[in-house]
Amino acid sequence: MMYAKKIKMQQGCANSNNTQEIAEIYIDGCNNPGFFPKATLHDHLIKNPNSIKVNISPYPYLVPATSSRGEKYVRSEPNDTQYDNLLRLPRV
0.90 exceeded by the pTM? Predict the structure, then answer.
């Protein structure tokens, strides 16, 4: 299983609570761990659903999403947390 472990926000969005403003996500548990652009992860999840989880309890899956402007991004499956679990990961 691959896990999202940290995030990089877009420039000027360091304190944002909007998943669309995540630039890259660090993925571990694959052959080449590292930061991947959100659009790359979106395309991976279209082809490989339920292959990446957020490394924070309750370990929700990442799911692909598209903004109203057609921008590809990812978010975690909805649960009872106030903000998306991706936004609770360490920011670098």
Answer: yes
Token representation of residue 27: 């993925």
How far apart CA 53 and CA 50 sit, in angstroms, is 7
Share of the chain above pLDDT 70, in %: 100
Cα–Cα distance for residue pair 55/71, rounded to 1 Å: 24
> Using one digit for the tens of pLDDT, what is the confidence trace for 14-59?
999 999 999 999 999 999 999 999 999 999 999 999 999 999 999 9
| 36-48 burial code (b ≥16 CB/10 A, e <16) | bebeebbebbeee
* DSSP conformation class of 91: B
Annotate 15-31 with b (16+ C-beta within 10 A) or e (fewer): eeeebbbbebbbbeeee
Closest CA to 23 of 33, 12, 8: 8
